[in-house]
Please model this.
Amino acid sequence: MRLEDKLTTARGYLDDPFRFEFDADVIGKVTLPDGRQGVLLAETYFYPTGGGQEHDTGMLGEAQVVDVFVDDAGNVVHVVDGEVTGRQVPAKIDRERRFGFLQQHSAQHLLSAVLEDMEGLETISAKISIDSPTTIDVPLANLGEHDWLRVQDRANALIYADRQIKSYFIREPEIATVPFRRPPKVSGQIRVVEIDGVDYSACGGTHCTRTGMIGVLKILKSERRADKLRVYFVAGRQALSYFQNYYAILTQVARQLNTNPEAVAQNVQRQQEQLRAAQVELEALAAERLPLEAKRLVATAEPFESIKLVIATFPDRTAQQLRALAGLLQNEPGMVALLATYDGMKLALAVACAADTAVSASELLRKHLSQIGGRGGGDARLAQGGGAATEEQWQAFFANTRKFIRESRESRE
Ligand SMILES: [Zn+2]
Model:
């Protein structure tokens, strides 16, 4: 990061990232293009968005600071949601938010250094976040679970070692004397953030003063993003709240399974096996039940002209199950059966016609499905199809069945 010619507002946070309260000297106010008010200070401890780290929030007098950014002239603009009156006002920075960014940002430098050192993976970009995992993009690489664990172990060992983190400015001619992880492509004065013996980065962000302050670093996952690999991790307090949240979920699941968290995976596997066995048995029972069901439907058949007519609708049958049932009904003398199922959106229909009825199942199916623009096929004895239907279409679906049967018989005679 280059600071020389754009450093208009004095930036106190660079030297003291733990100053959360200060007396602010108001030196100017601006109305932003979107109508919001911006306040300029002689010196600020509010961090403005930049370098992958988001701005601070807090209070300026009675007004809330909702955004902080650097304008084209190099001023730090504090966007407020109310009036700031007086030349000197008390300023207060949201500690939790700043501390969260500070932990994540130092953790990012540390992990970037370890990834480069152990795996030769250079950090292309990073996004520091306190609400979701922080991400580092590196070139595509094939790292196994064991490699990620080694990287994670090394990063955490450096946290336990409690190395010093310091920042200082150098001038351009001194660049060659600093072993930068990524040489800065800038001129003028450069801020160096150094993790003792581990990492030298050109960075204008806020950082922990020792690695121990990062607390813990947990790599969550890595995934391919176009030609890059994105690494997700959490650190510090965010890592704790992640653990807290996941542990609460795991404990709840364990309670529902009547077991302890350690046995959840085994327990779920056993239940899945039991479920599969139960499904197989259920299908066998359903197949056994089919002839009984067919017999019952025959008993409820309504005489229509010289045929026995069955119109049956089921709330939850698969197309396969309907077909199996229709297959039995087609052997019943005089039978014309229409079996349907509708789930509120999709309709499935199976039609069975006994050979002695002179009614064509495929024609009867086609006439019904033409009402909803559905598709299907079959032969004169057995036909099957379906399509999307509205509730109204479903209600009116069998209104013309008797007319269709007559037409089908006439056309076959
Ligand atoms: Zn940085």
